Predict the 3D structure of the following.
Amino acid sequence: MKVFSSPDDMRNVSQSIHREGRTIGLVPTMGFLHEGHLSLIRKARKVADKVIVSIFVNPTQFAPNEDLDKYPRDIERDLKLCSSEKVDFVFLPANDDMYSPHHQTYVRNEVISKILCGKSRPTHFRGVTTIVAKLFNIIDPDFSVFGQKDAQQALIIRNMVRDLNFRTHILVEPIIREKDGLAISSRNKYLTPEQRKQATEIYKNLLYAKEQTENGNLDFNNLKIEIQKNINNLPDCRVDYVEFVEAESLENKFSHGDKVLLAIAVFAGKTRLIDNIILNT
Ligand code: AMP
């Protein structure tokens, strides 16, 4: 496994892989790797000849009041995990490698970046689309693997690929959970034991909604109120949003037979957790 920090070196390697007629699977991450990331790497390993994992805590997707500086990092452990997953290359740029002091250009989704997580994180997705576009330009992956955990992000990236004619094929993999159902996230590390316990209620409420819809209860307004109440009743938790949206467009209107995404964001103490489930109506 080789590690590169320079975009030019990374591009040279990618170009030589393509010259040999081989395909590249890219897994973009912010590091502090866990089973969720590893499931994406395993998917890339299955579909592509060469696997590249990028590790970069992207500053443009953090607002000034967010956790950029204390975002968990453990590069040594990440590299060991990548190596044991038979990753071929790790792209590990420094901030200066990715953003020149004169950086002026951003990629922005102008529609669905404004809803759900975009409401409380108005500059977040602009940072995500910009860094992912840069990675696509540097690496030119045949396949790029993302997690359904960040369902809105995955859709925004799919739309960016369509709108800006990127060549890569986007794959979205299921949410990996802890035994008690909590979606695995690097940010779970911030939770106190009490918050961690309460956070399991998020998935329980997603499952409750799934059970209700499967039993024919499609009264999403009431379900939303019920779920908000359940979570806000937990001493350390506060709902940021609970939304039922059509799973592809993220629009608020849907008709019978549509797939509906139930997306939830919750503050457990100061830590913002997101999770979601697809409901068949
Ligand atoms: P991050 O390092 O948090 O930016 O995440 C990198 C990629 O891993 C994104 O595509 C996430 O959606 C995905 N991911 C994060 N957590 C999980 C999880 N629990 N299950 C599946 N994919 C995940």
Notes: The pocket of adenosine monophosphate is lined by residues 29-30, 36-37, 39-40, 146-147, 149-150, 173, 175-176, 183-186 (CB under 6 Å). The chain has a mean pLDDT of 97. The beta strands are 2-4, 24-29, 50-55, 89-91, 143-147, 169-173, 237-246, 259-268, 271-280. DSSP finds nine helices and nine strands in the chain.
